[in-house]
Write a structure and sequence with these properties.
mainly beta; Metal Binding Protein, Guanine Nucleotide Exchange Factor, Chain A; 6-stranded antiparallel sheet; 3-stranded antiparallel sheet; 2 helices; 11% helix; globular; binds fe (iii) ion
């Protein structure tokens, strides 16, 4: 999937849960250690919760201690868009789904080798598709 997906705010509000809408479309943040995936070790692919694009693989997931699912690389850098975020008195790099614009989280330069990147992602922005369908 690579064609851009544009939906109106009303369409997203109708198809997402209130929590998904608040995080993905209004750039909210789920509380640390509360999401579905921060401690998940299941093998699989993490899809965009809004459009289903394959964004992150469990092979690049690691325990950052932050309480949010953390990855040292995306499946494909082209699937991730970035934007400077100066909210809350900080300068951070916001990351979103290139296809549908869903806010995912932020990327920080304190991740592990080989990339040194830490993609700090809200669980609610993701949907895990396990490699083993029985999981
Ligand atoms: Fe998306």
């Amino acid at each position: 999937m690579n064609d851009r997906l544009d939906k109106s705010e009303a369409e997203w509000r109708a198809e997402l849960t209130p929590e998904q809408f608040a995080v993905c479309r209004q750039k909210g943040t789920e509380p640390a250690f509360t999401g579905a995936y921060w401690n998940t070790k299941t093998q699989g692919t993490y899809l965009c919760a809004c459009c289903g694009e394959e964004l992150f693989g469990s092979d690049a997931k690691y325990d950052s201690g932050s309480g949010w699912p953390s990855f040292w690389k995306p499946v494909d850098p082209a699937r991730i868009g970035t934007e400077v975020d100066r909210s809350f008195g900080m300068t951070r790099t916001e990351v979103h789904c290139s296809r549908c614009g869903a806010h995912l989280g932020h990327v920080f330069p304190d991740g592990p080798a080989p990339t040194g990147e830490r993609y700090c992602i809200n669980s609610v922005s993701l949907k895990l598709r396990p490699t083993d369908p029985a999981v």
